Amino acid sequence: MKTTTLLFLLLASAASTAAEPQHSYAGQQTRPIKALDAEQVAGLLAGRGPGYAKAAELNRYPGPMHVLELAQPLALTDAQLESTRAIRARVEARATALGAQLVAAESELDVLFQSGAADTDNVAAALEAIGQLQAQLRGVHLNAHIEQREVLTPEQVERYVQLRGYGGDGHGAHGHGHGH
Prior knowledge:
Blueprint: H1 2-18, H2 38-45, H3 54-57, H4 64-69, H5 71-74, H6 78-114, H7 120-151, H8 154-164
Helix pairs in contact: 2-6, 6-7
């Protein structure tokens, strides 16, 4: 029943969006990479994931960056702080490298069209590369949340959820039974 309701809401949202006037890309033709704005490029190059870990974050899998920001109210132990810093450093290193590769791949796609050389085969190959990089980058961010949750106690996870404003979601899985 929940899946049917969710599907209905998504379809209703898509239908209302489709009825709206078409978005204009005026002004975006001067971007170095047409599909990415400067903020997106900067974020990818800095190792940030533009919402890539929402599935984890909003389902009680804390992120290392936010855990570090909330270290004091979460009452992290020295060992937890050390583990969290290590997770964050690994994510940053891997995500920065993948982000740079993704920006380069998007640039290559843009060049195909800019040069007039785009065809169905080379665009498909470029999209395959972009898709793989996006999946890898998302995996880095999601896996960091999995790893981070294992560092915290169930009580700290609950405190994190409250501090981040995610409480009262109606789900039955409130941090119980996740292997601590």
